[in-house]
Amino acid sequence: MPLSLLRIHNLRNLQDVELEPSADINVLWGGNGAGKTAILESIFMLGRGRSFRGTETGPLVAEGQEGLEIFGRIEREGRAVETIGIRKKRKCAAQIRLNQENIKKLSILAKAVPLQILIPRSHEILERGSSYRRRLIDWGVFHVEPEFMHLSNRYHQALKQRNAALRGSPKTAFAWDRVIAESGEEMETKRSRYIEKLVPVFREEVSRLISGKEMLVKYKKGWPGGEAYMENLIRRRDDDIRRGFTGSGPHRSDIEIEMTGQKVEKTASRGEQKLVIAALYLAQARVVRREKGIRPVFLIDDLPAELDKEKRELFLNELQGLDTQVFLTGIEKDCFSVLGEKRLFHVEQGRVYRET
Ligand SMILES: Nc1ncnc2c1ncn2[C@@H]1O[C@H](COP(=O)(O)OP(=O)(O)O)[C@@H](O)[C@H]1O
Ligand SMILES: [Mg+2]
Q1: Nearest CA to ligand 1 atom 13
Q2: Which CATH code fits 125-293?
Q3: Does the C-beta of 63 come closer than 6 Å to ligand 1?
């Protein structure tokens, strides 16, 4: 899937940047405020149509400019080159074109440019709301189980109607139960099937990064085991009316990671938490690759610099073994010396200079 050309115009401090990344490992190094994260943001925009820093894309437009443009060229084995173009004016929605055609659904983009991002705060999803963990897992389910997106849309639309009715005219709310139960059961089947594939790969991955600690992943379905979702919806009707929302279902499921019998977020050091999350992302990349031949583009912002030398080298080795396109950022290029083959770019005041 690699990105073979990236052009950025007027995004944050990047006025006119063009780079030809390698299909393997790319290192962007340079001082604070040089524009390294902004480059990752532009790649992220190509895959998700938004930034990973905040929900607003307006602030991405360079100060004093009308709008930004990003262009990417993607090479795929055995297929024609694909192009993605994004134009975004300060106050308007982004215009996104895939192979010269306007696209409206971001899921089309997500399929065309599968990508993953690890930032210094990524480990916070261990202790934030369950929606963050579901979103992370659903990235993999979406790529491995093609029907998942459609199911999830159907489920969430019906759920919204049911919740509105629970607050307005409760008697009509239960007309939605059948469609909710059917799509919800299927969603959970797909999620569980994916998690069964993911867990062994994750445990192997994490054991290479943190040795000698027993890791466990627990998937908690959005309603009690042993009960059909329809039964559960019926049993909870009074509760749901009282609360004014649907209290069970795939929108409530979660995963929990334990290290030597304790929740990771409670006992593991911050560095260990970062490695656990990194292992989860790496494992997901391995699973989508094995199941669907998808090689996601990996964006990794500043992370290696936060690990000690030994852990950093272990992590970089894992990345190298992933055989996928990676963009890494850091302040010092020495941090990356353990990497064999790599393309180095020096980023300085919004300009990018290729070094190798
Ligand atoms: N809308 C904008 N217009 C112009 N410059 C911006 C805008 N938003 C952020 N910047 C500046 O862009 C620079 C690049 O930031 P960033 O990519 O985070 O740097 P790095 O990751 O290399 O430390 C920063 O100096 C920041 O102040
Ligand atoms: Mg940065």
Answers
A1: 33
A2: 1.20.1050.90
A3: yes
